[in-house]
Amino acid sequence: MQTASSDTVRKSATAEDGKPDNGEPAIDIQNVTKSFGPQKVLDGITFQVRRGETLAFLGRSGTGKSVLLRIIVGLQTPDTGAAIILGKNMAEASADEISAVRKQMGFLFQHAALYDSLTVVENVAFPLAHHRPDMSDAEKKELVEGLMEEVGLENYLNKMPSDISGGMQKRVGLARALALDPVILLLDEPTAGLDPISSGEIDELILKLQDQHKLASIVVTHDMISAKTIATRIAIMNQGKVLIEGSYDDLQHSDEKFVSQFLHRDL
Amino acid sequence: MAGTPEYPVRPSVFTGMLEWFGEFGSFLWGVFRAALHPPFEGREFIRQLDEIGARSLPLVALAGSAIGVVLSLEARQSLVRFGAKALLPSAIVFAVVTEMSPIITGLVVSGRVGAGIGAELAAMKVTEQIDAIEVSAVDPYKLLAVTRIAACIVCLPLLTVAASFCGVIMGWVATTLVEPVSLTHFIDAGFKGARFQDILPPTFKTSVYGLIIGSVASFQGMRAKGGAAGVGGSATTSVVLSSLFVILADVILVKLIILLFP
Ligand SMILES: Nc1ncnc2c1ncn2[C@@H]1O[C@H](COP(=O)(O)OP(=O)(O)O)[C@@H](O)[C@H]1O
Ligand SMILES: [Mg+2]
């Protein structure tokens, strides 16, 4: 895997890929609440992510981080409040508008959610097969193999998902999320289940992508080192609320006991 | 997916049934709308034709053959008793073609394909693969349900023809082993007096069975929840409900065909 070279940095300075960037936040979450029966999972969440920013979400298991991401992609609807993505309210937009937004989003599921009837390389090609009739098969093949190389799996192209490890599945899921060259990238625990070296490589890949494509990304993680590396801001969630949001330095100066517990567990 | 409750509720049996039919109705409506809007998932449809049609063929052929043999043995007994042995070929052909092979094909496919679709889609649902399809801006109804239902609708009549063919041939074999008769004579005698309504409507009514099997199994699969147990439950209910509805539909369709083609 290569690191961000000066070449890619130069590219980002001129990176006007024709995709919407009018300074509005790409992801605008306004006071979102969500309950399942009597259980209140999200309790008034508000934040914004602009292009070029990465927000890392930390929090204990079961605090609703995955539910929050599912609300952002419109798989679930908030009880109150709104998730406004690229200017569209995901709960109210028409099916065509939601499709248009989703084509600009890459989503890595917590358990990868690879299609188990397709090979690894077919999984990555799936979004292209459905949304890029303009590309020739050769172009698609080149793109997909390039993505597989970026996630370090160029030797596993024709394996079935059940034949590779969980960490590899996550990397395939990441490659699939990147296939349509998204504006928004949502990663649910991208480095969980990976060894420290692979985690580092994934972090570098995410950094490089941000640099090249001016992504608006949200990364859910338990890995403070990773959060510190890739995130422009870190949010810590507890009991359905965002406890604190800010840079790593801001967090270090917080008096909140829960926050310091979080920061010092991993360091 | 939208519309289904996201936490467990404990309805009474009756409201549970009403709710099931309500949700099934809106599922069918969603599938119907998805089916009308291009682009169509041609490749997946072909894959399903193979999975549902070609791979059911051996089982269906075997079931059809068995019916032919059994009918030949049973019918001989009673027809000889009534001195109507000459009717044996038509008794076998009529029984096979008009009723036995359509319903047996329907039930065999309910078992094989109902369980297959129910389990496959349920596994995809509980591992978030269906969510992943939706997030990729691809309509899971169109990709998964429409293709499977359409393949069932197309395959069932073809499988029924195969079952009928095997049934008639094996009926002849069983007959001729007891008392030699030429195939030509058997077929001539068997189809003598057969009319359009004795052959085509009973064969094509199985498209309705295909609609039932495909849609019930897809619905049960796509609403599954709760890990491996959910997948097993979904496969079981797919088979039970689709077999049940196939038998009920048979009663209605037989009556309807008699009314329409007196
Ligand atoms: N579809 C659902 N139905 C009922 N409860 C759910 C559903 N999805 C999530 N939950 C509950 O919401 C809570 C938060 O889940 P999740 O977002 O997966 O947590 P995490 O922060 O670990 O990703 C959990 O207690 C979970 O049981
Ligand atoms: Mg989670």
What would your notes on this structure say?
The complex is a heterodimer of chains A (267) and B (262). Chain A has a domain at 51-62 and 103-263: P-loop containing nucleotide triphosphate hydrolases (Rossmann fold, 3-Layer(aba) Sandwich). Mean pLDDT of chain A is 85; it is low at 1-18. In chain A, the strands form 2 sheets. In chain A, strands 6-7-8-3-9-10 form a 6-stranded mixed β-sheet, sandwiched between helices. The radius of gyration of chain A is 18 Å and the shape is globular. Helices cover 39% and strands 23% of the residues of chain A. In chain A, helix 4 (120-131) packs across helix 5. By secondary structure, chain A is of the alpha/beta class. In chain B, 82% of the residues lie in helices and 0% in strands. With 262 residues, chain B is mainly α. In chain B, helix 4 (88-126) packs parallel to helix 9 (206-222). The relative contact order of chain B is 0.16. The mean pLDDT of chain B is 89. Chain B is elongated and about 65 Å long. Chains A and B meet through helix 3 and helix 4 of A and helix 4 and helix 5 of B.
Shape of chain B: elongated
Largest sheet of chain B, in brief, is: none
Residue stretches of chain A low in confidence (pLDDT < 50, at least 5 long) are 1-18
> What overall geometry of chain A do the principal axes of the alpha carbons give?
globular
Q: Tags for this entry?
A:
heterodimer, A: 267 residues, alpha/beta, Rossmann fold, 6-stranded mixed β-sheet, 4-stranded antiparallel β-sheet, 10 helices, 10 strands, 39% helix, 23% strand, globular, B: 262 residues, mainly alpha, 0% strand, elongated, binds adenosine-5'-diphosphate, binds magnesium ion
